[in-house]
Amino acid sequence: MERSSKEVEITVALVGNPNVGKSSLFNSLTGLNQSVGNWPGKTVEVAKGTLVYKGIKIKVVDLPGTYSLTSFSEEEVVTRDYILSGEADVIINVVDATALERNLFLTIQLMEMNAPLIVALNMIDEATKKGIEVRDDRLSRLLGVPVIPIVATSGVGITELVEAVLARPAKSRRLTYGREVEAYISQVLSHFQNIESPYPLDWVSIKVLEGDPIITSRFLKDAQVLEKINSIMKTMEDLHGEPPSVIISSERYALSHRIAQQVTISHTKPAITLEDRIDGLLSHKVFGYLILLLTLSGVFLLIFSVGSSLSAYIDEFFVWMIESIRPHLQSFDPIFSSLLLDGVIFGLGAATSIALPYVALFYLLLSILEDTGYLPRAAFLLDSLMHKIGLHGKAFIPMLLGYGCSVPACIGCRIMETRRERLLLGALVVLIPCSARTVIILGVAGSYLGPLVALSIYALDLLIVFLIGKLLFKVLPEEPVGLIMEMPPLRMLNITLVLKKTWIKTKDFVYIALPLIVLGSFVVSLASSLNLVGLIVNAISPVTVGLLGLPVATGIAFIFGFLRKELALIMLATYVGTTDFSTFMTPAQMIAFTLVMVLYIPCVATLSALIKEYGLKNALAITLMDVTLAIFIGSVGIRVLMALGL
Amino acid sequence: MLEELLEAFCKLKSKLGTVTREDVTKSGFHEKELDSAIANGLLQEEGGQLKITDRGESLLLNHRERFIHDSIIHRGDASARLNSVDHWISCHKIDRSCIDDFYSRLKAVPYHIEELVPLLELPEGREAEVVFLVGGRGLISRLCSLGITPGTVVKLLRRAPMGGPLELSVRSTKVAIGRGVASKVLVKPI
Fold first, then answer.
1. Which comes out higher in pLDDT, residue A380 or A525?
2. A244: closest chain B residue by CA
3. Is the pLDDT score of A576 beyond 80?
């Protein structure tokens, strides 16, 4: 069988600085759910999607945001390698029209690589608001590549952009630098005439001049040539007093400055705007911290109060549903009825009562903080605190994510510059009480001992995280990498986008959690009907009873807590046969139980994220640390509490 | 005193290209000082043009090196003053790769070295030109990719309290940099 027409396929890659709307464009193009946020370094993994336009299949790849294409950071290497691989037929360079000079720095580097380029001039609406007019036709002429003005969030210009993709732009050509730098480049180039290279030789020469270790080791094997090139680099340095990499960066910036000036017309004089005033307040020495404190406590109070009452309603609804169905099913088949009601439906209820009130609410509030651009301001204020644990301000962002779910928090650690920092932060974020653990804190300590105890456990956990951070910093000492972070402009909230984002993130959570919870509940009701649970629970009783002084039954919570932490309480309740924990635990036991549950082990999904990010060995080391820590804190805690007479 | 003259000479040299006796005296130095610099073999007069000798250069570099050390590497603590860049780089765990080009970059600073201050010390709201970056390749590359290249004019918007970072306006964007980083960027206030 022969097809009448071959299916045409085009692969497009999105490249751009962090926070220029690449993810928004990706979503507009593919309708896929890549999450978007107003903080640098969001796209930590290469996202892929497809769209079909006029019968042509277009594959879209969203590359990590990057300012430059050197080989000093992982995002830069990932992006660079992808472009060099030639996998993409078209490279769309997303450019922020309000910060053209900084953005063109990357465009110029893409042109050095002769990428088949289209420039998507994004945020023209914001530029207009700021009184900046960008002449896209002139920009296109100066760069020699198609330039399409777009507004990624509202879809303006998307059709034109796709049309430009279908037209398949030619390979771009490198812009010419100053005469002197060009002379150095051609000197290097003259040594490369006989070299086989899949990459443009000009680009290789520039990279060699910059002292790029990857390219140099690959193309400079001849010792004689190496010596000659070193002498060219030495000459450059002696004449300019800067290393060649800085000279070339300055040259690129000089060029982008010139182009930006030629294509932008500013209609309004830069005056102190409302945005500047708000920004000043948010980063203020006193008010900034006050606002930060109010914001964070507001977020947690909302989650605690609204979350727990909403959660209770949902629970009640499911209990009512189960109990009203039970009489009808029981007479039909008691075992099937128990498996369906206590297993599947109960699990479904449990998942909903966490996902909706806690997770969705957290993501709604997080989306608001992200989209307004508040997170980098918070990171700015918390930088000095983070330095105490050997990290810098950006580390705050994954930590905050940790309050929602540990999995995105682990992945979010990639915004840190070095592997050591990522590992350090990764070990800390898993100790942050995620939504599921918040449920445990509120469900046990909160409902039986009062909100103050719940809050104290939260605070104690934060203190533990800080102390562990200090300890790890002592164990892995190294000069902390300094903070260098872009502060994106503050933006007005777009309610539709915020809601959409909340929905996407919550949906992701439900997709991972729901099957596990339903399966878990099912397994427990099955296991309890087979009397298996008792055996396992008894097997771990030396730890639960001996060391921690807890009732034997709590073992069930620890076993199932590994699958999903929010399962733990439900499983415990199912196993003991009551949801009233005060009937079988003293207040001291409840506090110790909560503490151990919060700290003891990353759940299975987090563990797999840890393995993926840091390797099996480090993941196991983190797990071992958490288990030891939990048992230590738990057993010391219960003895102190009992001595206090609780 | 002679170091000061050499600093002035360097500044003139990068501004004018060639420097004559007159240029130096016009910028506030006495003929006698110039003569003593020549007598000491720091400067040379050739066909009406002044040139710096190897000896002059090494004195100048020594002076600049000490300034950088005192103002950045080990601020204010004279007892901890170390002899050479080599020495303080190893003592203060500075990235080794920055030493290779350190002297040639230092030589080309187009201002009196005393005119420079670490970005950390710039008052809020003040503008300055980035002149010299002390640091390893990684740090310099990260600064450059955000537009903080030598010659760029930056404005210090605000600094966070309690040893927190600084917020700058660079090339019509805002960038936050930590204190440690800011102390390694030498700027010339405008």
1. A380
2. B101
3. no
Q: Let me know if domain A179-266 sits in CATH 3.40.50.1100.
A: no
Sort out which chain A residues have CB atoms less than 8 A from B145's CB and list them: 67-68, 70, 105, 249
Mean pLDDT (chain B, rounded): 77
Please tell me the distance from the alpha carbon of residue A422 to that of residue A481, in angstroms, as a whole number.
11
pLDDT digits (tens, 9 = 90+) for A304-313: 788 878 877 8
Q: How many CB pairs under 8 A join A and B?
A: 143
Chain A residues touching B172 at Cβ < 8 A: 98-99, 101-102
DSSP string, A440-495: HIIIIIIHHH-HHHHHHHHHHHHHHHHHHHHHHHHHS--PPPPPEEEEPPP----H
Q: Do A101 and B147 touch (CB under 8 A)?
A: yes
∠ CA A301-A407-A310, nearest 5°, is: 35
Interface probe, candidates B144, B155, B162, B183, chain A, greatest A C-beta count within 10 A: B144
Closest chain A CA to residue B92: A479
Per the CB < 8 A criterion, the answer to whether A411 and A613 are in contact is yes
Q: Which distant-in-sequence residues (6+ apart) come within 8 Å of A431 by Cβ?
A: A461, A464, A465, A468, A599, A626, A629
**Candidates 3.90.650.10, 3.40.50.720, 3.40.50.300, 3.40.50.150; CATH matching A9-166:** 3.40.50.300
* Per-residue model confidence as pLDDT tens digits over A239-294: 777 788 888 998 999 899 999 989 988 876 666 778 888 888 888 888 989 999 99
| pLDDT score, position A271 | 67
Residues within 8 A of B (CB atoms), A 287-306 only: 288
- Closest CA–CA distance from residue A240 to any residue of chain B (Å): 7
Phi, psi of A148 (to 5 degrees): -115, 115
- Mutate which: A102, A234, A397, vs B, most B CBs within 10 A: A102
Residue with tokens 């309004």: A268
Is B77 within the bounds of a domain?
A: no
Q: What's the domain range around B133?
A: 115-189
Choose, out of B149, B156, B184, the residue to mutate when testing the contact with A (most A CBs < 10 Å).
Answer: B149
**Residues of B with CB below 8 A from A379's CB?**
176
| pLDDT in the model for residue B86 | 58
Please say if the pLDDT value at position A641 is more than 70: yes
Q: Read off the pLDDT of residues A488-517 as tens digits, 9 standing for 90 and up.
A: 888 888 888 888 888 877 877 777 667 766
Q: Quote the number of domains for chain B.
A: 2
Cβ <8 Å between B164 and A380: yes
Asked if pLDDT for residue A191 goes beyond 90, the answer is: no
Q: Average pLDDT of B78-97?
A: 51
**Range from A210-219, A341-350, A462-471 that averages highest in pLDDT:** A462-471
* B174: enclosing H helix or E strand: strand B173-177
Residues of chain A above pLDDT 70, percent? 93
For chain A, positions 55-74, list CB contacts with chain B under 8 A: 67-68, 70, 72-73
What's the average model confidence in pLDDT over B43-59?
A: 81
Residue B84 lies in a domain: no
**Separation between Cα atoms, residue A637 and residue A453, nearest integer Å:** 14
Paired residues of B46 in beta bridges: B49
